[in-house]
Amino acid sequence: MSSKYEVVIGLEVHVQLTTNTKIFCGCSTAFGGEPNAHTCPVCLGLPGALPVLNKKAVEFAIRTGLATHCSIAPRSVFARKNYFYPDLPKGYQISQFELPVCEHGHLDIETEAGGAKRIGITRIHMEEDAGKLVHGDTADTAGSSFVDLNRACTPLLEVVSEPDMRSSDEAIAYLKKLHQIVVYLGVCDGNMEQGSFRCDANVSIRPWGQKEFGTRAELKNINSFRFIKQAIDYEVERQAEILEEGGRVVQETRLFDTTTGMTRSMRGKEEAHDYRYFPDPDLVPLVISEQWIDQVRQGLPELPEAKIERYVSEYGIPRYDAEVLSAERPVADYYDACVRLHGNAKACSNWVMGEVQRRLNEEGIGIDQCPVTPELLAGMLGRIDDNTISGKIAKTVFEEMWKSGDTADAIIEKKGLKQVTDTGAIEQIIDEILAANPGQVEEYRGGKEKVFGFFVGQVMKASKGKANPAAVNELLKKKLQG
């Protein structure tokens, strides 16, 4: 893109809430199922059926608002957003317009190019999802489309940012931060493939120094970070080419084609008045007390930013370790449990980030399925501390714990893995090794210090890895220098 244009990006993120039932009825929100199995007169939009607000969905909205530094409205109103589409049986969507539940928040992000930056959040409002169109893909169904209303009335939060982002990198940093927070809170499962977390991006460009925004295009329903970045970058280039050629960017809604990496026009962009919003007469205003807000605030988990600072200041581990360990709440919970049980935060972080994560990746499972519990890992680390086993032997013990679920003590006893700390026994092995390798002894004493590693290896081999490494090094140096 020509360097004379500044990019302006605002994001609208739809967060599907993890309630068991829908926002205005008692139907299940479970993913999948036979088409139209999770429906009732309310989500089918049948005449006379009245919506009833799901209290848990409101609690999740408050929780998200507090975690993103929003003010929670004491009074908010549901509105009807009127438009026609086959998967919207009522002919309108219940949403919020003038009086949303949360407003005026922010998220702090950081990118390599731009450093730290605060992105404003205009509003977070509650709404219901629409259904889904399934297009025929067989000889019998080609040219036909089918409506599945299982998803209709599923509870959503729409998180609307300020147009504060100036690159696709900033947009992705914001999205990843928001994604991490809603998953940490437990309000969303974050599954982008199933549409639980999806994004519309409003993209425009303007000459540097111009205060007025350019004409924006809205990129709809993109469900992966990689595709969102690609779509924004393509759209920026497309708009710049139009302006460079003397053309005019048209305000419209565009779709991103993942196979071509290009956006294409879908329809003209609607404005608020096109939807003819008005308060829903079937739903009373939502009133949220300070007492309820305080109750939700007290139940918030420690969020990633606070966790990172605690790990660095209280545990004394490097910031990099803290960021990795706090990235996912189950991993952080596992690590915290290990530290509580063992005490050495750095040793715990080394093992959780090292052997534990390696085996999880190999098995393709999450830490909630890890067969080595924090109690087992802490027990093994204790045996390293008291010199029962060495760090090298510990890896063998860990593998056995992973397979059997036995304690470190049981495995050490059963496999005979106890470390040799008897200096007399180690000294005897060293004497035998030195006697068998007089040439290497002369090389070392002649200044070739790299040979020292050879002797260490031979001693460890002769002891089947059980000799205490610190004792081996100390005794070897004395013998070789004597």
Automatic annotation (TrEMBL):
Q: Which reaction does it catalyse?
A: L-aspartyl-tRNA(Asn) + L-glutamine + ATP + H2O = L-asparaginyl-tRNA(Asn) + L-glutamate + ADP + phosphate + 2 H(+); L-glutamyl-tRNA(Gln) + L-glutamine + ATP + H2O = L-glutaminyl-tRNA(Gln) + L-glutamate + ADP + phosphate + H(+)
Q: Top-level EC class, please? A: ligase
Any single Pfam family the record assigns to this protein: GatB_N
Cite the EC number. Answer: 6.3.5.-
Which part of the chain is the Asn/Gln amidotransferase domain? Answer: 333-480
Keywords of the record, alphabetical order, are: ATP-binding, Ligase, Nucleotide-binding, Protein biosynthesis
Q: Does the keyword Nucleotide-binding apply?
A: yes
Self-association state and partner proteins as the record states: Heterotrimer of A, B and C subunits.
Q: What function is annotated for this protein?
A: Allows the formation of correctly charged Asn-tRNA(Asn) or Gln-tRNA(Gln) through the transamidation of misacylated Asp-tRNA(Asn) or Glu-tRNA(Gln) in organisms which lack either or both of asparaginyl-tRNA or glutaminyl-tRNA synthetases. The reaction takes place in the presence of glutamine and ATP through an activated phospho-Asp-tRNA(Asn) or phospho-Glu-tRNA(Gln).
The protein's matches in NCBIfam families, at most eight in alphabetical order, are given as: gatB (TIGR00133), PRK05477.1-2 (NF004012), PRK05477.1-4 (NF004014), PRK05477.1-5 (NF004015)
Which PANTHER family does the record associate with it?
GLUTAMYL-TRNA GLN AMIDOTRANSFERASE SUBUNIT B MITOCHONDRIAL AND PROKARYOTIC PET112-RELATED, GLUTAMYL-TRNA(GLN) AMIDOTRANSFERASE SUBUNIT B, MITOCHONDRIAL
As for family, the record states: Belongs to the GatB/GatE family. GatB subfamily.
What name goes with this protein? Aspartyl/glutamyl-tRNA(Asn/Gln) amidotransferase subunit B
Which species is this UniProt entry from? Desulfuromonas versatilis
